[in-house]
Structure formats: C-alpha cells, structure tokens
C-alpha cells in the first residue's frame, strides 16, 4: 500500500512537470496599447515631501517625457481629455525589512497607465531606481530606469507582456556609433 501511494505520487509529479515544461501561449496585452496614438503624462510624485523630492520628481518626469517623445510611440498631449491613454509617473519606495530595525529603502519608478474613456487602470510598470551619492550618477540611474520603462511600453504596444520569457524582444530604436561598421 505504501509503495502504491509513492508510485502514484511519483507519476503525478512527473506528469505535472511535463505540463509545466510545455511552452505557454503568448498572453496578450490590452489592445489599447497597440491602437493608441495619443497619451497624456502626469507626475504622481509628492513634491510636498520636501525640496529634494520635488527635484527628483521633476527630474523623473522630464526624463520620461523626453524618452517617450523620442520613442515616437505616442503623441504627447497637454490635456487628458485629448488623450487616449493617461500615464502617471512617480517615484516610490519599498522598505526591505522593518522587523529587525535595519530596514533599507529601495526606490523604484512606477508608471500607471489608464484608459481615459473608462478611467480603468490598464497596467502598472515598476522599474528599480539605483541609488547614488553623486548627482550625475543619479541622473544616469534615472535615465536607465526610464529607458527600461519605455522598453516595457514598447513591449506592451507590440502585444506582449513585459518580462514574459516567451515574448519577442523589442527592437532597439538607436544603434551605437561604435556598432555601425560591424555588419
């Protein structure tokens, strides 16, 4: 009896492993991302938290606005009523462990994307924001996190889910000058 239960459990384990090993079908992203041409961008950071936070909020907003404009993915408009999508960019903090007294805050950028007709949240994207001691390094880190958010938006516009290993990688829009003669 004991061996029969063990054998049955082993067969169930093996069959569940083969089911999970099959490649899953692509999970579609909301169709609004592919069909949308206009977007409104708002800053969702809290400048009332202090002067430094206001500078960071402005830096994040400006960097993302420039990145989104340069990507050509969406035409940015000045009013939410003129847009098909409304996006809110903000800086957030995750606290690692507050139970032992040695908690460490981990900053990240959050992009929430809403359908302006229904006011429904379509997607939220998070990208880690590396900390830095120097202002120039922090600006570079903001630009890298913003570039990751922009790439995630391109993935959604292509109909795939960001971070899905079965999804095709987005094609880069820029080439490095050092890579031009290597073809």
Quick take:
The protein has four helices and five strands, in the order ααβαββββα. The protein has helices at residues 2-21, 32-35, 51-71, 135-157; strands spanning 38-43, 75-76, 85-95, 105-115, 121-128.
Please characterize this protein's 3D structure.
- The protein is an alpha/beta fold and 183 residues long.
- The chain has a domain at 32-158: Double Stranded RNA Binding Domain (2-Layer Sandwich).
- It is 37% helix and 21% strand.
- It contains four helices and five strands; from the N terminus they run H-H-E-H-E-E-E-E-H.
- It has helices at 2-21, 32-35, 51-71, 135-157; strands at 38-43, 75-76, 85-95, 105-115, 121-128.
- Strands 2-1-3-4-5 form a five-stranded mixed β-sheet, covered by helices on one side.
- The radius of gyration is 22 Å and the shape is globular.
- The model is unreliable at 17-23 and 174-180 (pLDDT under 50).
Describe the secondary-structure layout.
Layout: H1 2-21, H2 32-35, E1 38-43, H3 51-71, E2 75-76, E3 85-95, E4 105-115, E5 121-128, H4 135-157
Parallel strand pairs: 1-2, 1-3
Antiparallel strand pairs: 3-4, 4-5
Helix pairs in contact: 3-4
Structural class: alpha/beta
In CATH, what is the class of the domain at 32-158? Alpha Beta
Oligomer: single chain
Annotation, overall tally of beta strands = 5
- End-to-end separation in angstroms reads 66 Å
As for the CATH topology of the domain at 32-158, it is: Double Stranded RNA Binding Domain
Order of helices and strands: HHEHEEEEH
Output mean pLDDT: 78
Backbone shape:
globular
Biggest β-sheet description: 5 strands, mixed
Strand order of the largest sheet: 2-1-3-4-5
Reported CATH architecture of the domain at 32-158? 2-Layer Sandwich
């Amino acid at each position: 009896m004991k061996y029969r239960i063990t054998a049955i459990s082993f067969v169930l384990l093996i069959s569940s492993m083969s089911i999970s090993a099959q490649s899953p079908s692509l999970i579609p992203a909301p169709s609004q991302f592919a069909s949308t041409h206009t977007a409104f961008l708002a800053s969702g950071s809290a400048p009332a938290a202090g002067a430094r936070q206001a500078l960071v909020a402005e830096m994040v907003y400006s960097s993302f606005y420039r990145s989104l404009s340069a990507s050509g993915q969406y035409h940015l408009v000045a009013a939410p009523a003129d847009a098909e999508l409304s996006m809110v960019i903000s800086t957030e903090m995750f606290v690692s462990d507050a139970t032992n007294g040695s908690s460490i805050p981990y900053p990240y950028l959050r992009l929430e994307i809403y359908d302006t007709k229904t006011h429904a949240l379509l997607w939220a994207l998070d990208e880690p924001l590396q900390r830095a001691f120097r202002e120039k390094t922090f600006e570079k880190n903001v630009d890298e996190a913003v570039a990751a958010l922009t790439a995630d938006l391109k993935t959604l516009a292509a109909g795939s889910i960001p971070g899905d290993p079965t999804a095709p990688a987005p094609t880069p829009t820029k080439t490095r000058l050092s890579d031009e003669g290597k073809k």
